[in-house]
Amino acid sequence: MTILDEIAGYAKERVAKAKQLLPADKIKQMAYSVEKGDFLFEKALKEPGLSFILECKKASPSKGIIAEEFDYLTIAKEYEKAGCNAISVLTEPKYFLGKNEYLKEIAAEVNVPVLRKDFVVDEYMVYEAKVLGASAVLLIVSILSKEQLKAYIGICDELGISALVEVHDEAEAVTAVKAGARIIGVNNRNLKDFSVDTENAKRLRNEIPEGILFVSESGVKNYEDIKNITSFGADAVLIGETMMRAADKKKALAALKGEI
Fold first, then answer.
1. For residues 178 and 207, what is the distance between their CA atoms, to the nearest angstrom?
2. Taking CA atoms, which of 7, 109, 251, 259 is between 20 and 30 Å from 177?
3. pLDDT tens across 181-198, in order?
């Protein structure tokens, strides 16, 4: 069993417990009672130039604790002030030490769209994301059937939130395109063993048709990495650890953009 299998299995347990506390029909009703979203995440990624999605995460399976002092609201506000286009918030509690409350509070406090970064294995989690205030959810192709993927994208469309559909290889890219994904992220980190290959997004770029937003995820450390990502036509980049470890978020983002 891979790490990804473990995390997805635990996500199913989490959903089962959540449904006991708040039934599926209730969370669905709550999601549709919230005002329909305006696909703000998608719009943010369509802005001219490379869009920056910066991530709030306390820990990861590959790096352990990234931030002992995890003042998530301050971090999110610093990201916004630094000039990010969107914020990604980990809500996975066991392996990434995330919480739904982090997402809810951040979404209520910032004016940029917020992505729920989690391991969605049930439509319940899509409705939950909407109720928590997310403008987008991550859908990982490798842990979903083709039917689930298409259905969850459809639910996102009905709720007015965006689906960032994550792939890691050519076959998954084809599946994402066929499912109707409008935003596809290529993860340079292999979630089965957490190895990183920063050239993965470049290799898969030609698999993503024009008109679909393209996001490079993981492995960005400096301006050279950003220049490489820009060179093959990415619309956005998702950066986690590098920005989390930066003491001065504004200065760190400016350096990544080549402004200093």
1. 12
2. 7
3. 999 999 888 777 777 787
Burial (CB count within 10 angstroms: exposed 0-12, middle 13-18, buried 19+), residue 180: middle
What are residue 184's DSSP bridge partners?
165, 214
Using alpha carbons, list the distances in angstroms from residue 25 to 11, 153, 194, 221.
19, 19, 36, 43
CA–CA separation, 248 and 78 (whole Å): 9
Q: How many helices (H) and strands (E) does the chain have?
A: 12, 10
Nearest alpha-carbon partner for 49 in 247, 249, 259, 198 = 259
CA Rg value for the chain: 17
Q: Please choose, from the candidates 20, 44, 13, 22, the residue with its C-alpha nearest in 3D space to the C-alpha of residue 128.
A: 22
Neighbours of 81 (CB within 10 A): 12
What's the rounded Cα separation, in Å, for the pair 122 and 207?
A: 27
Predicted local distance difference test score (pLDDT) of residue 188: 85
Digit-coded pLDDT (tens) for 49-75: 999 999 999 999 888 999 988 999 999
Only one residue has tokens 């639910």, namely 155
Q: Which residues are catalytic?
A: 55, 57, 117, 166, 187, 217-218
